Amino acid sequence: MRKIILLFFVITIALFNNEIGSAEGPKNYLKGKFYSSVKDHFLIATEKMRDNRFNETVIVMLESDENGAWGLVINKRIGTMPIALLIDPSLNTSEEREDLFKINIPVFWGGPVDAKEIFILHSAEYKSETTKNYGNISISQDYTILFDIAKNNGPKKSLVILGYSGWGSGQLEGEMERDHWILSDIDLNITFNKDSNTKWEKAIKNSFIKI
Fold first, then answer.
1. Between the CA atoms of 4, 161, 122 and 142, what dihedral angle is there, to the nearest 10 degrees?
2. How far is the C-alpha of 152 from the C-alpha of 87, rounded, in Å?
3. What is the pLDDT of residues 112-138, one digit of tens each?
4. pTM for this prediction
5. Counting runs of H as helices and runs of E as strands, what totals does the chain give?
6. Going by C-beta distance under 8 Å and a sequence separation of 6 or more, which residues neighbour residue 172?
7. Cα 48 to Cα 51: distance, rounded to the nearest angstrom
8. Is residue 142 within 8 Å of residue 123, measured between CB atoms?
């Protein structure tokens, strides 16, 4: 099945982006030294964060190398929407679609990049044809997982996330050298906690001490 691209609620996402901050990324950023340890960790915004889009943000970092880094914000909930609006109408009958409109799921803002692209971050016991595993957590990006979630056959724990957070070569490292971000181990209890408002506080309490 093809990758999921959001067809609806584009205006809602744009308004959410504006509410959490209209600041653009720095054009001339401090390029820092590459840290291989950023991958597979929580990236946690500190009180020194100047970009208000990422105020009190917790990000699951999925990739990081000399060319850049990317991850998914897990504590910025946009709202709730019917699962039918995330699925291409051509993939189901009108009766099935009517049933899918009755199933509402929370949706999260994953970052300012590709805001119409959908990622399902989930526990690692589930697998579909697009699933990529990152240790004890996985992501999938096909319609199969959404149908399985609707039928209660999906992963035990999951977050539906729109967009992602990305950095160019050395950009994230420069922000870390300015103490805008700190790291901690990924905690699945925090990641999939239903109360998004407590995730940042819990994650920052578990953060590593900078030496």
1. 0
2. 16
3. 999 889 999 999 999 999 999 999 999
4. 0.85
5. 6, 10
6. 32, 38, 43, 64, 68, 69, 181
7. 9
8. no
